[in-house]
Structures are given as C-alpha cells and as structure tokens.
Amino acid sequence: MAAVTNGKPEQATSEIDPVWLSSRTARQIYALGEVEKTDKPEDHMPQGEERSEQFVVEVSEYFERLDAIHMAIRSSLAHIRQARFAPSTINAPDPGFVPPPLGVGMRGADASDHDPTRTRGFQEERVERDAWKGILDALTRIKQARDEDRRKKDDEMQV
C-alpha cells in the first residue's frame, strides 16, 4: 500500500531502491527527483518528434525575445553613459565660498564679495520678496485711508 505525504500518494517502499532509504538526506534527494508532470491533456501539444520540434521553436522564440531585451538594456545604458557630463566639466566652488543656509543660491562673479544679499538662498529671497510685498500693501492701504480722510475733511469744509 502506498503511503500518503502532503496529500500525494508515495511509491511503496518496496519499489524504491534501498539506497534512497538509507538516510534522511537520501530520502530528501529522492523526493526532489519526483517531479509532477506539467503537461496536461488539454494542452493539445503534439506527440513524438513534433513535440520536440515544437519545444525547439518555443525555446528559440524565448531566447530571441530575451536577447532583444538584453540588447535594448545595453543600448539604453550606453546612451545614458554617453549623455553624462565628464567630471572635469563640473566646477568646484571657490575655496572661500560658504553655501547659503536655506537652499541654493547663485554665486557672485567675485568670490571676495561678502554682501549678504548675494549669498542668500532662493527660500530667503522669497521670504524677503513676500515681506516687501506686505510692506507695499500696508503703505498703499495707509495712503488710501489718509486720502479718504482728506476728502472727507475737504467735503465737510465745503458744506
């Protein structure tokens, strides 16, 4: 009677060569050799010589596709490598250059120029721009309020 392991019937131990039963490792190696059949009756694969020919055709198509992928990857990498900048074209910063604390800024033409407005980053420039816009808006509202007060006083004096 065949034993059942993992829901699959095993061969009777009398059918197995005793060498494969001599140790746990031998039994595991024997179990690895028992591969399920992958061909199903509904696959409609040809039999005999035609089957071998069909296998060769499918494997050839697979390797052609794999080769095309391989060549596409290699050519893409070659284009990327060619498009890169040479390290010698990248200029190092001047020895006395101190990077801005908040973001990237533009370096002045003169490295000895220590004007704080030239070493500010973009974020700092935006904050300053917004502050000036706020000041302009506040002064415009004050001027409009004063102009309106003057008109009211002029209207009251004429009445």
Written account of the structure:
This is Mediator complex subunit 11. Residues 34-53, 110-126 have a biased composition (Basic and acidic residues). This protein is mainly α. The chain folds into three domains: 1-35, no CATH class; 49-87; 120-159. The protein is 52% helix and 3% strand. A hairpin with a 2-residue loop joins strand 1 and strand 2. The radius of gyration is 42 Å and the shape is elongated.
| Number of structural domains | 3
Tell me the Rg in angstroms.
42 Å
Low-confidence stretches: none
What is the CA–CA distance across the termini? 124 Å
The count of β-strands is: 2
**Nearest-integer average pLDDT:** 78
- Number of distinct helices: 3
Structural class: mainly alpha
Protein name: Mediator complex subunit 11
Organism: Gloeophyllum trabeum (strain ATCC 11539 / FP-39264 / Madison 617)
Region (Disordered): 33-53, 88-126
Biased composition (Basic and acidic residues): 34-53, 110-126
Descriptive labels:
159 residues, mainly alpha, two-stranded antiparallel sheet, 3 helices, 2 strands, 3% strand
